[in-house]
Amino acid sequence: MWELFVEPWTMGAWMWRGTLAATLAAIPCALLGVFLYLRRMSLIADALTHVALPGIVAAFLLSGSVEPFTMLVGAAIVGVLASGAIEALADKGGVRSDAAIGIVFTAFFSIGVIALSVGVHDAHIDTACVLFGDVLGISNDSLILLGITAPVVCALVALFYRWLALVSFDKGLAANLGVPVALVHYGLMGAVSVTSVASFEAIGAILAIAMIVVPAATAHILCDRLPWMLVVACLHGVVSAVAGMYIAVWADVSAAGSIVCVGGALYGLAFLIAPRHGVLVRWWRKRSMDRPALPATSAPVVKGRIEPQPEVS
Amino acid sequence: MGAASLMTALEVAEIGARTVEFFSFKYAFVARALAASIMVGGLCGAVGTFLVLRRLSLMGDAAGHSTLPGICVAFLLAGSVSTLPIMAGALVSALLAAIVVGVISRGPRSRSDAAIGIVLSVFFGIGIVLLSHIQRVATTSYAGLDAMLLGNVAGISPEQLTALAVVTVVLGGATLLFLRPLSISTFDPSFAASVGIPVRAIHYALLGALSLSVVVSVQAVGVVLVSAMLIIPGASAVYWFKRMPGVLGTAVGLGALSGALGAWVSYIFEGVSTGPAMVLVATTFFLCSLGFGPRGGLLWRAVRRRERQRALVARADASTSASAYVEAGGGL
Fold this sequence. Notes:
By secondary structure, chain A is mainly alpha-helical. Helix content of chain A is about 75%, strand content about 0%.
C-alpha cells in the first residue's frame, strides 16, 4: 500500500517535475479564480483560457520562436484584447453578455486552431499538447515560466488584495473611494491570461477553466470570509494537483484530465457534506428541525400524540 | 516576382478546381458533407436563437463539452465507433450535464455562471481521462473519436447523416408548430405562465432539444466549437429583424450558409478542421450584422444619432433665445 504512494516519486524526475508544475499552475489559478467567481465572471475565465491559444500561435508566427516569454506577452495582449471585445460587444453592440463571451472566445479560438493547423509546423506546438497539456513531459522552459509567474501572481494578489476585495464586493464603493476600478479589472484579466498561458503546458487550454472555477466554487461553499476562501481554494488546487498526478500514474491516463476529475470530486463532496451549506447536511438539519427534538415547556401535540415532557435539569 | 505570381495563379486554379469538385456532388462523401453542414448550421441556428434570447447561450457550450465522456463510455461499452451507441452515449451525458447544471444552480451558495463552468470543465476532464485511456487500450480503431473534438464533416457516415436529418426535421417541425408558445415564453415568461403556457416544460424541452442537436452536430463541428454554431447565428439575426419569425429564419439561413461555406473552406485548404472554419464564416456574418444590421447595427445607430443631433441643432437655431437651445439638449 505504502509503495503505491512512494513508488511514483522514485520512478524518475518526471513525477517531481509534473507535480511541481501542476501545483505551480493550480495556486495562481485558484487565487485569481476566487475574485473572478465573486464578480460572477467565471465564464470570462473560460473565454480567456481559450483565447490564450491564438495569442501563443500569433506570437510564434510573428517572432518565429517558441521562447516562452514572447508567447506570454502575445497571449496577455490577445487576452486583454478579447476581454475588451467582450465588453464592447455587451456595452456598445447590444449583445447579451453571455452571448458576447460565447462569440468572442469561439471566434478567437477558431482563428488559433486554424493558424495552428495551417501556419505552424513545429513539434513544440502541436494541437493535442496545446489543448490538453503534457504535464508529464513538461519542458524546462515551461517549468521556469511557471516558477516565475506563480510567485509573481501571488505577490500581486497580496499587494492589491484590498483593491481586489473592494472591487469584487462593491464596485460602486470602490470607485467612490478612488480605487481605479477599470485598471483593477484589466489587471485581473491580464493576470488570468498570463496565468493560463503559463499553465498551458501543464493543463492545456480547455481544462484551465476547471483550475480557475472549481476551487473558488468549493471554497465558497466552505467559507464565509474572503481570506479563508483564498486559502481553501489554494488547498483545493494543490490537493487536486497532487491526487490527480497519482491517479494519472496509477491508471496511466491523462494527467490534466485526472487533476480536473479530482477537483470535481472534491467540489461534489463539499456540495454534499460541507458543514454549514452542504446539501445533505442541510437536509439532515431540516429533518431534525421538523421533528420536535427539544419540545417547549408545555407538552407539544404532534400528529395527535402526546410527547413525554423533557426533564429539565 | 514572376514566379510568385505564377504560383498564386496555380493556387487559384487549384482552389477553383477543388471548389467545382466540392459543389459538383461528384463524390458521395462530399455531397454528404455538404448536406450535413447545411443541416447542422440550420438546426443549431434555430435552437441557438432561443438559447441566445433566453440568456442560456453558454448552456450550449456546456452541452457541447459534456458529450465527450458519454461518447467515450459508449465507445468502451460498444467497442466500436458505430453511430447509434455513440449518439446515445453523447445524448445521455449531455442531458445529465443539463440536469447537474440545474442542481448546482439551485444548490448552496452557487452562481449559475460558475455552475456552467464547473459542469463543462469536469465533464470534459472526465472525457479526456477516458479518451486517454481509450488511446492506450483500444484494440479496434478509435480514429473517429479524435475527430469529435474539432469536427470532421467529411468523415460523416450515412447513419449519422440520417440521424441528423431526422433530428433536423423533427425539431424544425416542432419549432414551427410551437412557435407561438416558444416565443411568448421566451420574451415574457410570467405573462406566458399567466395564460397557461407550460413555461417549465418548455424550458426542459428546449434543453432536451439542445442536447439532441449538439449530439447530431458534433461530428461536423466538434464538441469544443458546437456552442459557436448555436450562439453566433442567433446573435447575428437579431440585428436584422424585430419579430420572431424573421429572426428565426435569418438565424437558420445564416447558420446553413456558414455551415456550407465552412465545409467548403475546409475542403479547399487541407488541414483545416471543419469546426473552426464554420465558426470563422459565422463570425464574419456576425461582424457584418453588427456593423450594418438595420436593428441596432453600429452604422445605423451612428446615422440615427447624427440625425437626432442635427435636428436638435436645427431646432436650437430656429429659436432665437439661447435658453431654448439649452433646453433642447445643449451642446452640439
